[in-house]
Design a protein that fits this description.
By secondary structure, the chain is mainly alpha-helical. The chain contains seven helices and no strands. The two termini are 21 Å apart.
């Protein structure tokens, strides 16, 4: 599990998309937990989140999380970590424009693909509406 955490952290550090996605994911998680919309998470709301998580892990609905369910959750986490590791490798290859096996600061800064994708009217600026469009697009795709 520690390896998957490291891989996820590296992936977030190496791709601009990951930063935007993490922000959108964090916002979405907080909004979902804040069921009364007061911009804070109460203990009752936190307990409700834990109950929903328990229910997701208790696949057969018997009120307990057994070894099979725990291993199934672990397998799902590992599959996601492996996919993140593959994305990290792809990002590294894409960013390494001179093919030397390293990503320099210049190569890293040169990648403006997320900005370019977000700047839908190509005016060199990202408006709140453009940012919201991309956040919703990726949020729905990865949510």
């Amino acid at each position: 599990m520690k390896t998957s955490t490291i891989v996820a952290a590296l992936l977030m550090a190496l791709t601009s998309f990951s930063i935007a996605h993490a922000q959108a994911t964090g916002d979405r998680v907080l909004r979902k937990a804040d069921t009364n919309g007061d911009d804070v998470i109460s203990k009752d709301e936190a307990l409700a989140v834990r109950q929903r998580l328990f229910s997701r892990l208790d696949r057969n609905g018997d009120g307990t999380i057994d070894r099979d369910e725990s291993e199934g959750a672990r397998d799902a986490i590992m599959a996601r970590a492996e996919a993140a590791e593959a994305r990290l490798g792809n990002a590294m290859r894409r960013l390494d424009t001179n093919g030397d096996g390293k990503v320099s600061a210049d190569e890293f800064r040169a990648d403006t693909s997320l900005f370019d994708l977000t700047d839908r009217n190509v005016d060199g600026k990202i408006s709140a509406a453009e940012a919201a469009f991309i956040r919703n697009l990726f949020g729905n795709r990865h949510g």
